[in-house]
Amino acid sequence: MKTRHIAILLALVLSAGTLSAQRAMTVQDLTDFQRINHKAISNDGKWVIAVMEPWRGDGDRNGNIQKFTGDATAKIYDATGNLIQTFVPISKIDFSSSSKYVIVRTKICEKEREEIQLKAQRGKEAPKPAQTQQDARGQKGGRPDAESGKDMPMDKLSIYTIGGGIQTIDSLRGYKLAEKNDWLAYQVGKKDSTLHLLKLGSNELNINSITSYQFSPDGKSLCAVAAGSGIDGICGLFIISEDSPAPKLIKEGKGDFKNITFVKEGSTFAFLYSEKSEKKGDKANRKSPELWLSENGAQGECLLKDASGFAPDGWLISDGGRMAFSENGQRLMFGTAPAPREVDKTILASSRPNVQVWSWDEAVQYTVQDFSKDRDSRKSYTAIYDIPSRKAIQIATKELPNLSTNSNMNGDLALLSTSEPYSRSSMWEGRSRSDYYVVNLKTGDKKLLREADYTRWRLSVEGKYAYGYCEMDSVWRSIELATGEVFNLTDKSFGAWDTDNDVPDYPNAYGNGGWLANDEYILLYDRYDIYKVPARGGKIEKMTVGGRENSIQYRFASSGGFGEEKARDPKEIQILTGFNENTKGYGYYRLDLKKGGKPVELISGDYMLGGFTKAEDADVWMFTKERYDLFPELYVSDAKFKKIAQITHEGEQMKEFIWGTAELISWTSYTGKKLQGVIYKPANFDPTRKYPMIVNFYERNSETLHSFRQPQPHRSTPDYHLYNSNGYIVFNPDIIYTDGHPGESCYDCVMSGIDEVLKLGYVDAKRIGASGHSWGGYQTAYLATRTDRFAALESGAPVVNMFSAFGGIRWGSGMARDFQYEHGQSRIGKSIWEAPELYKENSPLFNMDKVTTPLLIMHNDTDGHVPWYQGIEFAVALKRLDKIYWLLNYTGEPHWPVKMANRIDFQTRMMQFFNHYLKGEPMPKWMKEGVKAVDQPYELGY
Prior knowledge:
Structural class: alpha+beta
Shape: globular
Distance between the termini: 56 Å
Strand content: 25-35%
Strand order of the largest sheet: 47-48-50-49-51-52-55-56
């Protein structure tokens, strides 16, 4: 017994020593934390690529950061987890088709790139502070582009023979790797037009004067456009085949070759050709591109000189349209469009009024038209060329612009649709009706199928049926295209709809798992299980047993193109994911589609599984496994999951920091709602201490209990690991809403959850803060007017006045905002004329006099989701009432900061704000003294 006590004491001492060696994370650590941002498994399943990268570079409008913007490190492993090669820094990496080679594009390191940029920046006149100007929406926008540096060294290309040597090619301009063959094409130098065509492990062919090139899908042919001095003095389009490497002329010409499109297998391809215009930018005299075909690599044949004879008068063949062959190669899809319009040049541009005309009865809201006008001006309409009959048919039109075919396009019947007649009502309904027609792709004949229908009809794999879920009555249906006969696949007794729906609208479906062969059956989901349903309706067969009984949600693990692209084969292994609603854990299961039954458990536990990928040519699977305290490492398994190998060990970087743990908590709200939430604690948690706590929420979060929550400088929310590491508890409660009362629903769920946490005894009730963004930002603003129990609140991009927000525009799409209040997330359920009292009740603006909590607001002036003036109304009201607040406006940024420097700044200021009010740290200068506009370009205040 004494020995056992000594062992326990020693373990505690060692554990304490480990924690004391760890340190708290900083915001800079968030940017340096390495994540796996790209992974791949070779076709033969023997090799794995994992690319590690810190958080660098700016994001897109949604805040998504492009891959390989920092010093990305590519690591190549064998399928047992042995590291065999490393490349850094890279910008692209691929396995070859044979799995024998890895092709890597490398670049200069981040430090060297920044030095070049700084040198170029210093060589210019010091920039003046950025000027802003009002745009058409009354918003400020624009920021100076960062100095890019024009004299960057060119990239390099490395060809790594797995288990062998590395061939390096300098001054790389670009390359392409055949998808299904070991062919590599590349060019070097900024002006060298030589195309190097390399059969990996074999010979290289050099072809001069190439401006563009493209492999066929089967990788056995390559098209190349020769210009300048041409090939043997001839300019035009050439084909090089694996069997005959000498370039073969397809079409001579010095014009533009575009939209080169191959059949799925073989060397038959089509393309567009147009002579260069004598006058640059002359739209009025623009000639239609010609449609050409080369069958089996033969000399090109002009199929169509222009669009006359089959398309409306004045239309051209469009190089902006999608081109595609049917799988059998008998049908070619291409685009047509009205000839481009030319602005009247007989008058001065300054003499032409610049006015928008909005009409009360316009089908599409003018702001939507304005947002999409560039895309609409390039819009094309699908036509079909029937190759055996050498006949073109215009299928899509302005009246019926949307064409849906089955994936192989072999079938003669397809769907045409339009929603434009009903676009006006979609402004407030939040969904659109459409007219659907069956169209014969051989004749162009159309027949009305459904009118003013809310169902989103899609085509089955073979194209025999249209199918869809009707949200209005929660029923799945199919329509036989040949006859127009409608079949009910389910009825109200089949729980196809989302039973957790809590918005004032019809619930969505749980979805489907695709089709079986010959369009005989469709696989449908309810909350827990998978069902096989005859395409014409009839007896429904339950394929999984035990899902509902064990609260496990079964779904097919990977779409893999199944659904509308290809049918599932019952003879093949079907892997399911299973999500356990009680434990929030995940598992993989095997299902026999021939007979159904209880899925066979392969692996499961209290963690999250993801990234499921199958090797192309082997029954080998790759996946990730993660938990809040477990890095999402890569694993490789055999088909039976008997041999599972951990490939990466990137969680080692976590050992430097004080981490955290996540645990589920349950409680009952003030109004009797059964709720769950997640408490995130520091790894060195001491139940006898009183911790400060950050409450962060949006809607529901408990199902992500086991998510790793990748450390990063987030665009809008606190980083949980950062706050755990610095001695905070983080609490994320689920919120269940009552129609018409979203604000009070938030109060009911969040505050009752806080009460439950306080009962545990380790949170200081006087040091609680909350943070939310967008919908969460609105709820945080509402809580500021409803309670004084918070020491500090951060509210990002909030709506505070539902009256003015209801009548606003979502500038990121041009859509009016009323639908989201009547039927969407804002959950009022009625218009302002039907229930003005609800809009007032849920608008924090009208209760700003009750605010006692210091607020940090973040709202950016080009926000396309929530009107920027909501933030202004918030700030002006608080200032008028002498309430404590700070507002952060990252000028030129959208709904959240996307520029990395701004994301880091936001995380820094938010933590300083909470550290002051929840931990008693001194105020930074920006909070104590502010940052005046005249000083803003020169100092940050922290």
